[in-house]
Amino acid sequence: MDNKLVERIESNPHYQELVSKRTSFAVKLGIFVLAMFYAYILTIAFNPSVLGTKIGEGVMTIAFPVAAAIIVVSFITTLIYVSRANNEFEDLTDKLREDVKDDL
Amino acid sequence: MFRILAIISIFAVAMFAAGDATFEASKRDINIPAIIMFFIFVGGTLGITYWAAKKTKSASDFYTAGGGITGFQNGMAIAGDYMSAASFLGLSGLVYLKGYDGLVYAVGFLVGWPVILFLMAEKLRNLGKFTFADIAAYRLAQKEIRTLAALGSLAVVTLYLIAQMVGSGKLIQVLFGLEYEYAVILVGIMMIVYVTFGGMLATTWVQIIKAVLLLSGVTFMAAMVLSHYGFSFEALASKAVETHNLGQAIMAPGGFISDPVSAISLGMALMLGTAGLPHVLMRFFTVGNAKEARKSVVYATGFIGYFYLVIAVIGLGAIVFLNSPEGQAYFVDGKLFGGNNMAAIHLSHVVGGDIFLGFISAVAFATILAVVSGLTLAGASAISHDLYASVINPNCTEAQEISISKKSTIAIGAVGVVLGIAFEEQNIAFMVGLAFAIAASANFPILFLSIYWSKLTTRGAFIGGLIGLATAVSLVILGPIVWVKILGNAEAIFPYKHPALFSVTAAFVGIWFFSVTDKSERGQKEIELFRPQNVRAETGFGADGAVDH
Question: Chain B partners of A13 at a C-beta cutoff of 8 Å?
């Protein structure tokens, strides 16, 4: 990739839209997952007994549903990301390719 | 295939004959149906390996499978890699031993995947090379980066290998009644044979098939466990609390992850380590484009997440069934036969009889062999390709490089056997946690910064990466597990079990400092090269379709 092409792509509005949308989407989801996981880890680190809080009369604690929820929510975030990335972001990439295809 | 079966048989017979008096006392009855199942499945996977290995000739086939693996297949293969002995045997063993703490590992292992997807997967694919060293070397100097990547890979591979060796050694011990040391040596020899005979691409298929079998197997096992309790998780948990000697404590985090620093450190290692495992990163180059790379993470996360939820049931089931009066048959001298890592294997016998024990053992063993071969190959090529052919002797012939690669395979196998024996009593999920800590400290920072930080230079990456690696390795050695339990010293020099918090920080600070103070001409050129690299990472232009190497 020569510098001229790099500059042409960088100044293309589709490229700018792709990068800014994807970066902000990925960063938001990433921060969400990180915050969820670190809230969990910091609870274990500093106040593990919170997770030992019982649900109802039996032995069941909130620790198990919390772990299961983190696993399920993590999976859902990957679904959310991919359903947008494989449509919207791929379309933008295709438009950009169309714009610069003579130089590729 | 027959050669391997013959070797196993000869060894098995020889080991039985060699049994001494104390060994006889702890030996268990040989379980013929289980052993037959075992041979059928192990033989089958070896057959697949042989078939796939014959179909792949070129280096490009070898690395990328022609770029023709779909997102779904790749997701299954990643899940297969991930559901290794450490996850299956180690996590279920940890839940059996400590209760909830095992699940903390499961959550951490899983949470790494969304992070990989958002930050790394498509950029790795778009930079479109074969190994993670190639990505870091995209704009940095080959020699330094390859040396560092090889050292990082070897450290990760060695620790990961120990975990798998312990798991497979224990498995052979339980199934065939061999003494642990002989079982580990046997696995070491099989591993070396398997690597020279099978090859890397074949493991994709073995992993896919194994992932299906293992998911079916654990689902069956969990269903059998829950069927005794009217499919109520609560009822199972009540019984587990009743029978476990820690009582209600197994329902919350505690014993194993006991201090705040260790908890934070472990969380960091698990989350970032996945993005630094050489054999996992390689999987993103086997798919055709960024779209498939993303899909594969979704499938992988789904399968792995399901697997971990099921493992929680299996771990609690092991507590209940193995602590029951009937479960006493699986104990020798008051200790679970084969150690706590074997809890799931014994449980499979309780709920499914001899045939199911054979099935689960065989699937577990086949996966260990596939993972171990992949690891050994990654380690051997780090020595022969990155260290020897790129750094030590750049003018070497291909024959010399191949010869070094074979010798490295044998050396890594031998190291795996020796360390596998030394680490016999350690929980393998914990061992993998340490491997993740090293991956998070040595490989991840360089990879991450080379993709995202324009001011990274070779000097910064090399010195900072070495600092991260050296910190992680020395803190593991000076920590409570190796310094006290393995080397027998009275007190650990480094008090925490998990070094990642310190070593990851050291790596990032080191890389930052030695990059921004790098005023050399080469450094300036590397900074300028970031722009074209970044455009390619964002768009995949220049890397579309099959990899163009």
Answer: none
